[in-house]
Design brief:
Length: 370
């Protein structure tokens, strides 16, 4: 029997529903982060805006408390990037994605040549208890490694520790309203529990589909940067439902996962510079719109993106006037219906008030792109 076809709009609404972006959820913070399989967090405060756009009554102070109580952690996982995860998910997911970090270390243009022929076992055996005894900054770790291994490249050794040891960035790094340089310690020492011994890539695939599906094998690879998913998907097929997109590409999904009517309205949502909803598919056309700014401008040139009717239709940044204390959300958008422009401005006002609560004034300035 031929697989059902899902249009780009149907894929869009399915993913938005699972990403809690069709309507704000009453899910608790820990439950939401677990459901979303973590939040991209190399910009320390990005997860706060990501959660504000997804959860009713979101309190940013709660995330800080959860980081300080060690229920949440910041650790390198999918795609070799820092994510905000529950401690249990960090223990289970880091072993699954370790091949990504191994490959990253092996191909690093600067450090890989310095590590050719180096036995890293003594380095890791030295660094792990040192970092467990007291979290260290990158500079402090490099200094300790230089003293202990004077004939080796200290920065390359520190990078090997970053890739090969499951290190968390300790608070107050990543805590709302606070700051600290990156200071790291081993995950097991921080949370008082070992890594999951038999971490399951099958479970990771099923959780990905629950948060990002329907999806292809290539989408799974884009989300994680792992390879070999075709065999995993083939193994899981009895538990999955097949689909194709409107270009005939094969997709899989959980049979009972939400797939809303494509006509379901999608609200305006302001996203941070890096949000997993836009980073976790090889084919991101489900979020593209004719006349939109395009993904070439969606990252790096602005604070973040804006979803209008579920698609990337605007980018935004914050401008601060120190003299007046005014914070302005500057939103660049392509032509939109008047009703969408009004909704864009209204949500922008809410977003800037959340993002800059310290400002004495808040405003939104819209720029129409040609």
């Amino acid at each position: 029997m031929a697989a059902d076809v899902l249009s780009s709009r149907a894929l869009n609404r399915a993913t938005l529903a699972r990403q809690l972006l069709l309507q704000r959820s009453s899910m608790p913070v820990v439950g939401a982060i677990e459901h979303l399989v973590g939040l991209q967090a190399q910009n320390p405060l990005d997860p706060y805006l990501a959660l504000w756009s997804r959860l009713e009554g979101f309190d940013p102070e709660e995330v800080g408390r959860l980081l300080e109580s060690r229920a949440l952690v910041r650790i390198v996982v999918m795609r070799g990037t820092i994510h905000l995860l529950t401690a249990d998910d960090a223990r289970a997911l880091r072993p699954v994605v370790q091949p990504v970090l191994d490959a990253e270390l092996a191909r690093h243009s600067q450090y890989a040549p310095e590590l050719v022929g180096v036995d890293l076992a003594p380095v890791l055996a030295f660094a792990a208890p040192l970092l467990a005894d007291a979290p260290l900054s990158g500079a402090a770790l490099r200094g300790a490694l230089a003293d202990r291994f004077p004939l080796l490249h200290a920065a390359a050794l520190a990078y090997a520790c970053r890739c090969l040891l499951p290190l968390v960035q300790v608070p107050p790094r990543g805590v709302w309203g606070k700051t600290l340089q990156v200071t790291s310690t081993p995950l097991a020492a921080w949370v008082g529990a070992p890594m999951v011994a038999e971490a399951s890539i099958d479970d990771a695939v099923l959780r990905y589909l629950a948060a990002f599906g329907p999806a292809s094998v290539a989408d799974l690879a884009a989300w994680s940067r792992l390879t070999g998913f075709r065999a995993v998907v083939d193994r899981l097929r009895p538990r999955l439902r097949p689909f194709t997109d409107d270009r005939g590409r094969s997709l899989v999904d959980l049979p009972d996962a939400p797939r809303p009517d494509p006509a379901t309205p999608a609200p305006v949502r302001f996203l941070p510079e890096y949000d997993n909803v836009l980073l976790s598919h090889a084919d991101r056309s489900r979020f593209a719109a004719a006349g939109g700014p395009g993904f070439d401008r969606a990252f790096g040139e602005a604070k973040g993106t804006v979803l209008v009717d579920g698609c990337v239709r605007a980018i935004w940044r914050v401008e601060l006037d120190r003299a007046s204390g005014r914070a302005t959300a500057v939103v660049e958008h392509h032509p939109l219906p008047k009703r969408s422009v009004a909704r864009l401005e209204a949500e922008g006002r809410r977003a800037i008030r959340f993002w800059r609560p310290d400002a004495t004034e808040h405003e939104v300035r819209l720029h129409l792109l040609g």
